[in-house]
Amino acid sequence: MYILRNAGSDNDSLVDDNDLTISTTAVPELVIPYFLNQAVVWWPPSVMGWTLQTDNNLTLGTWANYTGAVRDNRVTNSPPPGNMFFLLARP
After folding, report:
1. Containing domain of residue 62, as a range?
2. Does 84 map to a domain?
């Protein structure tokens, strides 16, 4: 995520006081180990306020909220017949 903000205003004719500041917000990392024919998706328990989303085609970009049970920032899935991609989204 990029945040743009105007850091000042042009108060004189000699110096341009209008600066643009760009800062980023780090996205929490997902960990997805594969164990006993299950994909376990988890992220650190300290990460709060994010929603797990899935998509099966990155070209279309049709991310939707994960509909399964999420317990303690962890979900377990049987392998899907095709692709399944995960991300954390912040509302």
Report:
1. 27-89
2. yes
- Which 3 state secondary structure label does DSSP give 14? coil
Query: Per the domain annotation, does 55 fall within a domain?
Result: yes
**59 token code pair:** 């070209």
The span from the CA of 71 to the CA of 15, in Å, is: 55
**Rounded distance between C-alpha atoms, residue 35 and residue 50, angstroms:** 25
Do 50 and 86 touch, CB atoms closer than 8 A?
Answer: no
Q: What is the pLDDT along the chain (91 residues), one digit of tens a residue?
A: 444 444 555 555 544 555 555 556 677 899 999 888 888 999 999 888 899 999 999 999 899 999 999 999 999 988 888 888 999 998 7
Confirm if 90 and 50 have CB atoms less than 8 A apart: yes
Task: Give, in degrees to the nearest 5, the angle at Cα 75 between 31 and 30.
Answer: 20
